[in-house]
Amino acid sequence: MYMLNFRAVLLLPATLLLAAPALHAEEGMWTFDNPPLKQLAEKYNFHPTQAWLDHLRLSSVRLNDGGSGSFVSPDGLLLTNHHVARGQLQKNSTAEHDYLRTGFYATTQAEEMKSPDLEVNVLVGMQNVTERVQGAAKRIADEAKALKAREAEIAAIEKESKDKTGLRSDVVSLYHGGEYWLYQYKAYTDVRLVFAPEEQAAFFGGDPDNFTYPRYDLDMALFRVYENGKPLHTANYLKWNAKGAQPGELIFISGNPGATSREDTIAQLVTERDVVEPAIIEYLQRRIAAAQQFAAQGPEQARLVGTTIFGLQNSLKVYQGRVEALADKAIIAKKQAAEDDFRKKVAANPAWQKEYGGAWDTIAHVEEQIRPEIKTQLFRRTDSQLFTVALQIVQYVAEIKRPDGDRLPGFHDAQLESLRFRMLSPARIYPATEKLYMTTALTLAQEKLGTQDAYVQAIVQGGDVGRTVDTLVDGTKLSDPAVRKELIDGGEAAVAASTDPMIEAARRVDPIVRETSRHLRDTISSVLTPASEKLAKARFLVYGKDVYPDATFTLRLSYGTVKGYPYNGTIAPPFTTFYGLFDRSASFSNKPPFDLTPKEAAALGKLDLSTPLDFVSTGDIIGGNSGSPVVNRTGELVGLIFDGNIESLAGDFVYDGQRNRAVAVHSAAMLEGLRKIYNADKLADELEGKQ
Amino acid sequence: MYMLNFRAVLLLPATLLLAAPALHAEEGMWTFDNPPLKQLAEKYNFHPTQAWLDHLRLSSVRLNDGGSGSFVSPDGLLLTNHHVARGQLQKNSTAEHDYLRTGFYATTQAEEMKSPDLEVNVLVGMQNVTERVQGAAKRIADEAKALKAREAEIAAIEKESKDKTGLRSDVVSLYHGGEYWLYQYKAYTDVRLVFAPEEQAAFFGGDPDNFTYPRYDLDMALFRVYENGKPLHTANYLKWNAKGAQPGELIFISGNPGATSREDTIAQLVTERDVVEPAIIEYLQRRIAAAQQFAAQGPEQARLVGTTIFGLQNSLKVYQGRVEALADKAIIAKKQAAEDDFRKKVAANPAWQKEYGGAWDTIAHVEEQIRPEIKTQLFRRTDSQLFTVALQIVQYVAEIKRPDGDRLPGFHDAQLESLRFRMLSPARIYPATEKLYMTTALTLAQEKLGTQDAYVQAIVQGGDVGRTVDTLVDGTKLSDPAVRKELIDGGEAAVAASTDPMIEAARRVDPIVRETSRHLRDTISSVLTPASEKLAKARFLVYGKDVYPDATFTLRLSYGTVKGYPYNGTIAPPFTTFYGLFDRSASFSNKPPFDLTPKEAAALGKLDLSTPLDFVSTGDIIGGNSGSPVVNRTGELVGLIFDGNIESLAGDFVYDGQRNRAVAVHSAAMLEGLRKIYNADKLADELEGKQ
After folding, report:
1. Do A579 and B586 touch (CB under 8 A)?
2. What is the pLDDT averaged over residues B194-203?
3. Which of A166, A186, A206 is the last residue of a domain?
4. Residue B500 located in a structural domain
5. pLDDT, tens digit, 9 for 90 and up, residues A242-256
6. Domain assignment of residue A292, given as a range
7. Pick from B211, B573, B589: which is nearest to A569 by CB?
8. Residue A3, pLDDT score
């Protein structure tokens, strides 16, 4: 599943990302200010108007759980993937009502089910603020001070915008410092579930089929966005095309790819390959094993950790794909050739060479410094929701008293509204899984970093992980959002006086985390940021501006063609059908993870089995694009991105138009499923505009 | 398709083959005198009786067109693949009646259609004649003379047996000279077609899907064997199991694998990789291009070359798989490690080292000699049926006058009956395709060997291929089998006096071919044969006799389990269903080669789509196994081998039980197809014993 890349949420030094010099056909995750008009005109004779682009952008939605979506009705219906919705589904489920297993359908608006902590964003404004951000540090020689000045300026821009417009305001670094943009978002936090199929229908084939194609998944969910307690009325929604994507058709994908490393320097790829990825894979395997052991205890235990196992297995498959890609000599040779070409072209111009030529070595030097520290950054973790919120509270009450520009990342004024929304989430936290995750994380931390590590010592009392975890989880009151609110409202005094064991642990950890953050900024980021900015500027000079920036979990436009590709010694088809769902299920004797749901089995006589189910296109996507709408030339919705094929896992580093494919649910399949499997004609009618 | 390996029919020096030292589970193509009883007992607790083995052997049939089959009714019904039968189907087709396109079904015995030149063999006797063959050369120091003495002894053994029993009698070299066996066959030449589906149903997915899985092919055909003008009545037939192969089930495959190179020395693999395979691939590509150009001229032209293109594309895919396998560093490392182990173990015993230790270097030396000559051996060819039979006639009349032991290979007394059957085939030969194939072959020969090459000069008059081919094909009368018979019966005088231009060309080529044959025997085979025999003996000493010999297109027993395998980032199922046929067809918008036949499309309402269609097992097979029966523990027919997966193409060199799979048609699918698609209930009843 094309979920937000796991790495993007790890506490790791940011990786330097640069845009690509020589583009392959249909490559690219383009910003809406710089769409690939030239390529579309030349290859497809297609000339989107500004209105076409604006409508698509304003119909696109970022789900801050880590995915994408789109408005698909004038009454705020929001289409995304089941696997993007599953976090909220899990939070709304109980032992009695397991909506992941049974699915959900609100036949009336009254039944629509509120998501506890889902914020969604629509990108309504974009302003280039590069000069202001870069100018703030221009005359400051000291690197650490320069970085600080730049961060203060970013915070100021965000705050000004937020104060003036009330919009969520994020300054985004694109082309790794080549440009800075202020992105203004309309944020919605009243997001209610309307429909989700059974997990098994959405995720047919399970972990084995994940990141592969041919596929037979109905990986869809529908929310409705509310504003002031009423369904959002909007003209910015995508018309549903009931015929759906056609083989050979030009399509567009509008969504939020999370992170790519296409322009990593070779030095950075070596860090990824040799240090980061082996460590993450080991970490993921350990967590999966522990969670599976827990799940084996019974159905309720299995339910509690289902979404966690899903996410971890998904990440593991991504990382295994990345490891294979970086072990592929052809890929490394390609990356090396690109870097050699870039360096040669910079060196050929004495002025460029003087200004930018040293950046590669600077980065290589920083990478050498980083490598031994990565293990510490990665394994200092608790994987506990309660501890995370405890630390947020401890830092929040301190940070908000400091000048905005001086605060830790994430605590700037413009960010506080979203942060408080998350900190005060009413979603239930289960002590059993808190203990499981925390025990696994701290045991691994002890093993990897030693019992003498400062972070480990600050949490684990007397070296006994089991007793520590029991004390913390059993003793804390932070499961109750009202307790969190009290502490937040009580400020520094209340937090300092708290005897909640989780807050006490967070207080002990806080200085260690701050010191790490300071160390990374002063010795790593302060050097990397200007070096990467130099490479970005050099790249614009050498290769021009007809390029796209690496992914940053902000809105991007991709384009491509619906078509198959060489696979397994033969060719994969452009789309699959419901016939294939029944074939693959019968081929495995209907055993999990290839079992049909009772509703699917019962629909056999009704379904038109030749209806396209899933399809592939050459559009360039990555984790975070899950739930992205696929639209045709007229801007109508023809599909719903939910995955990439196994070959696309190398897409983090390099795009291969021959074999890299985005996998989507076909718009015809969604209607067929709603009407024939789920008897949701009313909802299908709303999508088709037939009410 | 697992057709007889193309290389096996090329005029190339025989490759040295040795049996495997360390067997993987379910590896092996075992002779019926040495079945894998130990493995079956240990892994499956299965203990086949001698009667079980004899019944399976006597129910198994070799089709000398290059495939395998089995008796499946007491009235001589012979089950094989459509693609094994397709040569005879093509020969019986005309522009008006294209049985390849339309299929064929004889509703009465009177309609059963005689095959023009199909001989089938049943292995009724096996005798170990190693001592006699090896003894014949024991005291002869001169290598060339020793080889000749051995060949004379083999001819004598065959003639004695043939004279005594009337059976086809072949001495077979197993373990590359480690053992010699006299195989006695009951031969049948009255073989009539009863049923064949449309080519498109048998070969759904065409060249792209060939050698892949999942598959959806009904690759079956039924002949009936006649004796003395009446259906053969036999107790040696396989009972049809209507439920068919089950996932996880132990199965057996009895058939005639054509050739493997599992025990090639590294020196021999290098010859294959660097010289043989690139040349063959170029040759195949050239022939395919020429034939496709011809086919584009019209439907009748397409019909005429359809089977040729099929066979060439099949071979090309095999050779591309072999090239990939030999380019795979892991495979080469595995082969090198095996050879190193073998050499080390021989060297550890001074007596063995003295007797056998030099064989590897001897072979490596011979390989160096062979390499520059391979191009000549490969490209000296006409690909003309008429020229081939002309040369056979020229050689036949001369050879039969010589002492049996002195003759060219293929002309020994015991072989003459089969040879005459082929030479006098009434199958129609088309001048247009003769010209096409001959022009392609001779043009390529000129290009690769130069116009001064003796063989090229002997055929191509005045350097003009086009005119030469027109003169030969337009001028010859050899299309008429009566003319061939007249020349054969007229003997050397008639052949010498003939002014038929094809016979004249053959007379010019004959001395060149004889000289090549002599050269290869005296300088290559005379050294290779004893060296390979030494390695074979050493292998028995080092690894014992619990091994199987490389394939030799003689009857073998393989065993395995019905099960899927890791593929495409996920897992392939143990079987497919008719649902999958309709899925893959619809997924490609029913376009060739993924189109349903009208009969298949019409059967949609009648077919039980969940019926297993094709399935995979771990059984170890290779080209020539096409048409092999798959039987269960009780010896009942549960499937019909027709292909291997793409991963199995490395099986020529190494068996990988994790991913190597044999692909078969499921016995339930054959019944379902006969009854519901072809309305052939009568035939299905005969198979089920329901008459």
Report:
1. yes
2. 98
3. A186
4. no
5. 999 999 999 999 999
6. 266-540
7. B211
8. 59
Q: State residue B21's pLDDT score.
A: 42
Q: What is the mean pLDDT of chain A?
A: 94
- B587·A214 Cβ contact <8 A: yes
Angstrom distance (rounded) from CA B246 to CA B630: 12
**CATH classification of the domain holding B26:** 2.40.10.120
Count CA within 13 A, CB hemisphere, residue A82. Answer: 26
Residues of B with CB under 8 A from a CB of A: 205, 208-212, 214, 247, 317, 567-571, 573-577, 579-580, 582-584, 586-589, 594, 609-610, 645-646
Chain A neighbors of B209, CB-CB under 8 A: 570
B200 and B99 fall within a common domain: yes
Q: Are residues B582 and B643 in the same domain?
A: yes
Instruction: State residue B481 phi and psi, 5-degree precision.
Output: -60, -25
* ipTM attached to this prediction: 0.93
Residues of A in contact with B212 (CB under 8 A): 568-570
A275 domain-assigned: yes
Which residue from A567, A568, A579 is facing B583, i.e. has the nearest CB?
A: A579
Is A610 within 8 Å of B586 when comparing Cβ atoms?
yes
Query: Does any domain span residue A56?
Result: yes
Is the Cβ–Cβ distance between B601 and B607 less than 8 Å? no
Classified as helix, coil or strand, B471 is: helix
* Number of domains observed in the structure of chain B: 2
Distance of CA A600 to the CA centre of its chain: 30
Is A217 within the bounds of a domain?
A: yes
- Rounded to whole angstroms, how far apart are CA atoms A599 and A603? 6
| Backbone φ/ψ region at A503: left (φ over 0), alpha (ψ -120 to 50), beta | alpha
Q: Please name every residue paired with B170 in a beta bridge, in sequence order, or none if there are none.
A: B183
Nearest residue to A82 (alpha-carbon basis) of A641, A593, A578 = A641
Residues B310 and B220 in one domain: no
pLDDT (tens digit, 9 = 90+) per residue, B404-420?
Answer: 989 999 999 999 999 99
A326 shares a domain with A412: yes
CB contact under 8 Å between A568 and B571, yes or no, is: no
Q: Tell me, yes or no, whether A515 and A494 share the same domain.
A: yes
State both tokens at A57: 């952008």
Position B2 confidence tier, pLDDT thresholds 50, 70, 90 = low
Quick one: A475 and A516 in the same domain? yes
Please state the rounded mean pLDDT for residues A495-522: 96
pLDDT tens by residue, B306-361: 999 999 999 999 999 999 999 999 999 999 999 999 999 999 999 999 999 999 99
pLDDT of residue B74: 98
Is the same domain home to B12 and B112?
yes
Binary contact (B586, A567; C-beta < 8 A) = no
Residue A8: its pLDDT value, please? 40
Residues A86 and A177 in one domain: no
Q: Using the beta-carbon criterion (under 8 Å), do A209 and B570 form an inter-chain contact? A: yes
